[in-house]
Design goal:
single chain, 249 residues, alpha/beta, five-stranded parallel β-sheet, three-stranded parallel β-sheet, 13 strands, globular
Length: 249
């Protein structure tokens, strides 16, 4: 009897002490390049900013499409009337809008809850303003870890990086950015996924027109990110909301 009691107690203590298997979270896909041959997806980060109209008009004039990764509160508050108009202008002209997080923080330095907060606040803004739930998120600085990938997977999004950097955000001159485009185009890869920033006047007014001309002369189709991947740009669409006192940064 005593043996049975001792044995049961020992087994119970072992079961309590036994390590449990860690829960393995699903990780979001990470996109580094397009998949559809002969496509280029020009992407623009950090807006909506004042050069949005000029960028969209330049793309439209060339029969090209772009993809805009928006922040909620970086260069401007996305709920300011001018900023909302810029988001609507890009979307209504057939360009793709996507998430670049709320405040452009390095997600790899944040906690699980902070990562989700950075994501959902800009997602909520895009759903309110143009009625879309973005299927793609670009992490600021291109930095991510498994925690970020797990959060993105839960939110139904893929992460998007790039395979070409115009260098505008790190101080490249117009000539340097144009040289980068020219060098890559001369190698004629099957696809190109360029990183640009809509917050630089020289990108909007000098580099972009040059890049479009060179890319189209090389025979590339300039499409949205979703088109260059053969995927849908949004998880769902709905009617835009009506601004109220909760639409603030």
């Amino acid at each position: 009897m005593l043996f049975s009691v001792l044995t049961a107690a020992l087994l119970a203590s072992l079961s309590i002490a036994a390590p449990t298997s860690p829960v393995k979270r699903q990780l979001a896909d990470v996109v580094y390049s397009c998949t559809q041959p002969n496509t280029v997806a020009l992407t623009f980060d950090d807006g909506p900013w004042v050069y949005m109209y000029d960028i969209v008009n330049t793309l439209n004039a060339a029969g090209a499409k772009g993809t805009f990764f928006f922040n909620g509160n970086n260069y401007d508050c996305i709920y300011n009337n001018d900023a909302m108009d810029r988001v609507r202008y890009a979307y209504n002209n057939g360009h793709q809008v996507a998430s670049h997080t709320w405040s452009h923080s390095d997600l790899t330095t944040l906690s699980w809850d902070q990562i989700h907060d950075e994501m959902w606040r800009v997602e909520q803004a895009l759903e309110r303003i143009v009625g879309v739930a973005p299927a793609f998120m670009r992490p600021p600085y291109g930095n991510f870890n498994d925690l970020v990938r797990s959060a993105s997977a839960i939110r139904g999004q893929s992460l998007v990086i790039w395979d070409f950097d115009s260098g505008d955000s790190v101080g490249a001159s117009v000539a340097e950015s144009e040289s980068r485009y020219r060098s890559t185009i001369s190698q004629h890869p099957s696809t190109i996924l360029p990183l640009n920033h809509e917050t630089y006047e020289t990108t909007a007014h000098q580099v972009l027109p040059y890049a479009i001309q060179q890319l189209q002369a090389a025979g590339y189709r300039l499409v949205t990110l979703a088109e260059c991947l053969g995927e849908q740009p949004y998880q769902w669409t709905t009617a835009p909301g009506t601004p109220d006192g909760s639409w603030t940064c």
